[in-house]
Amino acid sequence: MVALVRYHQVSRGTSLFVMFNKLSLLAFTLCALSAHGQLVGTYETETHPSLSWQRCTRSGCQNVSGSIVLDSNWRWVHSKSGYTNCYTGNTWDKTLCPDNKSCATNCALEGASYSSTYGITTSGNALTLKFIQPNSNGKNIGSRVYLMASESKYQMFKLLNQEITFDVDVSKLPCGLNGAVYFSAMDEDGGMSRFSTNKAGAKYGTGYCDSQCPRDIKFINGEGNAEGWEPSSNDSNAGNGGYGTCCNEMDIWEANLISTAYTPHPCEGTQSSRCSGSACGGQNNRYGSICDPDGCDFNSFRMGDKSFYGPGLTVNTNSKFTIVTQFLTDTGTSSGTLKEIRRLYVQNGRVIQNSKVSIPGMAAHDSITTQFCNEAKAAFGDRDSFGQHGGMGGISKSMTAGMVFVLSIWDDHTANMLWLDSNYPTDADPNKPGIARGTCPTSSGVPAEVESSAANAQVVYSNIKFGDIGSTYSGTA
Ligand SMILES: *[C@@H]1O[C@H](CO)[C@@H](O)[C@H](O)[C@H]1NC(C)=O
Ligand SMILES: *[C@@H]1O[C@H](CO)[C@@H](O)[C@H](O)[C@H]1NC(C)=O
Ligand SMILES: *[C@@H]1O[C@H](CO)[C@@H](O)[C@H](O)[C@H]1NC(C)=O
Fold it and tell me: CB–CB of 53/405 below 8 Å?
């Protein structure tokens, strides 16, 4: 039997069950909504928490006053002129959402109380995402936010011949959790101009897509994903609709205290694109979408260096450190094609070179290149869906067009995050190259367990800098 390689189930929208206390909402003015389409609610003003970051060139860095927005999937979605939930737990209201289109005309996305409902706070250049936030409706689990350029536009990053750097504190992020930072090829306006029935847009965090072509997204292309929605059997906050939404994804950072990986996932095309049913890939048809669900991952532990990343190791995850990721092109300019993705770390003023691959059949690579990917797929016996979907050149197209910066924290109802931090597949010989990815037990990461045992987990991202190669960090060798 061929064991499924099932890593990189990225950022499922573990959604909040929000049933607001009606009395507390009577204080808000109820405005009549005349627009038709995926609407916005008026009970809670949407105020984006500010987050400053820096844009750098070789002559120095400048502050940019940005902000973040919560993804729409986490928001209260209710009848356009009342308090009735359109979506509760993991099911749609059959009256408000009898079909996809009327779901969008009947339902409104509400503003978010970032700190008290979702456990999302910012201070200066730092963003803290709590894993669990108790609130008046029960609790919120995980979150996903995007960096904004303005009230209604995401900040777009053109990555070629540039580097992105930030500090992270994963010391409170145990086995089974993932503090993820990545770029997705979402629309700058959240899809408002391409899909006229989307009246909410980036201001309300719409338009998410990734290389797993997620089907747990409640609104896609300005329509509800209500028809054919199946509640998850093991996640009381999620389900899968008939549609999914695919796009190029560059995972800069998928990590916890024990393991880390960075991974490009190319798709055909540059923009987000809606898929239907098994053409979204997933459960029984993993490789059936236009995207590469596996990616070409560089996880130091999986690549043979077991003493590089972790508590007390070369990159000591007990305290804060800096991650630098560089996107080098064949021409050395932003008009070239992506040829190499390099990683550096900085901790306590010292620049730490990435670990080197130590796997039979592979050269001692310390970065992601086509050659690294080819050798890894061969050495591990993995299917090369990365190459089949365009490889480095495939994801390069979206990097030219611009991508949205995503920051999240999540647990994994599909594979307990074992693809990141344990032996996976769990029934394979852990001595076989590619199976061991970290020291977490194969029994770890069960969502019901981590949601109670790691209720105080959180991740802090800070000091985000973007710019010319070599301009965003310093340190001694
Ligand atoms: C940039 O912002 C940081 C806080 O995020 C602040 O400490 C620093 O003084 C600012 N620099 C400039 C040049 O405004
Ligand atoms: C609604 O979406 C489902 C997939 O979720 C699709 O099969 C169906 O055709 C859509 N219905 C309409 C009326 O567009
Ligand atoms: C949870 O259910 C989904 C299907 O809804 C399934 O794919 C997944 O394997 C299940 N996860 C676990 C850990 O059993």
Answer: no
